[in-house]
Amino acid sequence: MNVKDFAQGNVLFKDVYFKKHEDELLELANQGQAPKALFIGCSDSRVVPDIILQTKPGDLFVVRNVGNFVPPHKVDDGFHSTASAIEYAVSVLNVNDIIICGHSDCGAIKHLFAPKPPQEQPLTYINNWLKLAQRAKSMALVSLGKDAKETDILRTTEKLSIITQLDNLMTYPEIKKRLDDETLYIHGWYYDVLSGNIDYYDPETFQFVPLESKK
Ligand SMILES: [Zn+2]
Fold first, then answer.
1. How far is the CA of 198 from the centre of ligand 1 (A)?
2. pLDDT tens per residue across span 141-156
3. Which residues are marked as active site?
4. How far is the CA of 66 from the centre of ligand 1 (A)?
5. 139 CA to middle of ligand 1, Å?
6. The pTM is what?
7. What spatial distance separates the first Cα and last Cα of the chain, rounded to whole Å?
């Protein structure tokens, strides 16, 4: 697959999908978007929100980053892309739900446990960014013990990271306020790349349970 294939894909999209859904797409274009949820997912090419949820244009406001992390609220002159997306979704679009969707076999989480990268290929941004999952890594190692199977440690860290990112979301004053007012709800999801299944985090039982069982 290369850029030529992407160009052909766009021709096909215009000829088939756009034509078939022209009324809705033009209404969205003319009226503006009013998505119901902010979806915070991983940049991983296998975790494609509109495909795994069968949603369509206009349904989801999406931010994807390495590891589906949420940096804690911090006001300074840095360039905060994820915080900007959160702010826009909450304060401008007034979404009712925020979903943080982690996934199995996450490269970001795997990298947390990898030996230090070779000096000749320094990763300028990634190593600092991965600090956002350090707490999840420590919690997984404490709860499973260092002798646990590597796959168990990785899967547990992926899930604990979702919970710690939910904690980080709550450091945003506007989110905290809307949660208290019950005008906003936040959700932690875990997508299994092997089965397509999504589990959600139930804060009452501290368990991940199948999303399809959610009432
Ligand atoms: Zn990932």
1. 14
2. 999 997 999 999 999 9
3. 42, 44, 46, 103, 106
4. 6
5. 19
6. 0.95
7. 40
Task: For residue 46, report the distance from its CA to the centre of ligand 1, in Å.
Answer: 9
Q: Quick one: DSSP state of residue 118?
A: P
Alpha carbons within 13 angstroms on the beta-carbon side of residue 65 total 21
Give me the amino acid identity at 144: L
For 167, the token pair is: 């904690």
Assess contact for 111 and 151: CB atoms under 8 A.
Answer: no
The two tokens of residue 42 are: 């991983």
Cα separation, 157 vs 152, in Å, equals: 8
Among 17-26, 86-95, 139-148, 159-168, the range scoring the smallest mean pLDDT is: 139-148
| CA-to-CA separations, 41 to 47, 66, 98, 145, 165, in angstroms, rounded | 8, 8, 11, 28, 11
Q: What is the CA radius of gyration of the chain?
A: 19
Q: Which two tokens stand for residue 134?
A: 């350090």
- Residue linked to tokens 């368990």: 207
Query: In percent, how much of the chain has pLDDT > 90?
Result: 91
Q: Which two tokens stand for residue 39?
A: 């979806």
Domain 33-213 in CATH 2.40.110.10? The answer is no
CB 74 within 8 A of CB 13: no
Q: How far, in Å, CA of 150 to CA of 127, rounded?
A: 21
